Description:
By secondary structure, the chain is α+β, with helices and mostly antiparallel strands. The chain has helices at residues 17-23, 33-42, 63-70, 99-109, 129-152; strands at 26-28, 47-51, 57-62, 113-117, 123-128. It has a three-stranded mixed β-sheet with strand order 1-2-3. The chain has a two-stranded antiparallel ribbon with strand order 4-5. A hairpin with a 5-residue loop joins strand 4 (113-117) and strand 5.
Amino acid sequence: MNPWPLKETFVKVDTLLPAARERLVTISDKAQLTEAAARLGTGHTGLVVVCDDAGRMAGVVSKTDIVSRISQCEGHTCTMMVASVMTRSVASCRPDDSLQMAWNLMKERGYLHIPVVDRENRPLGTLFARDVLQALLREVEYEEDLLRDYVMGIGYR
């Protein structure tokens, strides 16, 4: 039996919620695609969370979705509703999920950002891969510092 098993980090998504809340951009599923494009153009996000009338996440629209759809516009087709373009099957996480789980999901699917939702599927924020990775790296560095201090006998007298 290995006395030093590798431990999965238990830092939770909720540690990044303040930044995730600042990056959250939402829109009604009844809004026009041009409105979603305008919201994506003004912030530091590449993702808009589409919500139904009850405020629950119904889907997401990314910058890539907007660009690919608008490039096909002819005449009145640019006035289509965001619901006709959004991705309905959305990978998301919850505040009590581990950051490692969120990172694995993002890495596995090639996402740069994913929504954080509550138990009723209401959006709470948008996680960025960069933020998740930085938090995980800080945790590993902290554990390395603790191990080095232990091995060198610092603070354990």
